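One-letter codes give the sequence; each number marks local geometry. A record appears below:


***
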Amino acid sequence: MPEGTKTDPSGWRRPQLAAALMLSAAILALPVTAPVAAAPRMAQPEPQMQAVLDALAALGGKPIETLAPQAARKQQGPADAVKALLKKQGKSTAPEAVGKVENRTVPGPLGPIPVRVYAPAGSGPFPLLVYFHGGGWVIGSLDGYDSSCRALTNAAQCAVVSVDYHLAPEHQFPAAHEDAYAATQYVMAHAATFNGDPKRIAVGGESAGGNLAAAVALMARDRKGMRPVHELLVYPIANYATDSPSYLENANAKPLSAAMMAWFFKHYLRSPADGQNPLVSLLKAKSLQGLPPATVIVAQIDPLRSEGEAYAGKLKAAGVPVHTKRYDGVTHEFFGMGAVVDKAKQAVGMAATDLRAAFRR
């Protein structure tokens, strides 16, 4: 220690202590800056949507992420909540009438795939929409998405082939994707047996089904398969990540939360590496050029909103014609709720207008 330098009992040299005190005083004198922005607060559902959410809560279901997949499939869901609300309102719970409904199977890589074919009134041949239900590739069924298919059948005046692909964890990635592609290619090759026009076939779906529809378009391009004329993507899963703005904003949303999405990924993916596959993470596709025109519909109160909007943006950047719209005040799963939610009718109308235009082309 240099001669003449004193220390205080804490061990600091006095010149160092003085300097530290001066720095502390200077820091305390700085103006207070705004804190780091927190995630935006989740939006409030509009009254019609809130009524459905209240009806869903009254059904008393347990959080999906706390259940085994087999138990989760038995729980009542949003479609049941709509029926309960209709009963409460004194309205009919009968499904929307269409020209004809038929249950069939199509061949797939894991065996026969059940499909439900909806046809509008009339003689045909009709344009065809191959449709994939939601449920995170783990839950969901033809019955749970029956209302969407019926509404699209009438609004777009097309036949809808709803595909009941194999579910996880019994059949993990890429089982659902391969089923979806095989079913689409079969329907396109045998359109006449569905009273359909082989030159006017589109794909569509909701949530995990929206992901499958987009993946089928990618697979058809890359595998030189028959290509759909349009893709209808309703709040599609487009990224294996839970840190987007809408995930942070709607982490605890109903009927889809961030915890539920993590549960879906856990059961469908064989390992985290599968999540990087562009068929799961559509945003990671190297190129989106050459894909069919798309309609992308998202909901404000939905963890998947940001990735759906991002995918629409990437499609546009790749030169793909895209019509996209965000519906405010509504949640994931709203699309099939036209019996009780007006914005669902609007969204189906938008989708149908785009499909009719694609079929005319």
Summary: The domain at 100-360 is CATH 3.40.50.1820 (Rossmann fold). The longest strand covers residues 196-206. The two ends are 88 Å apart (CA to CA).
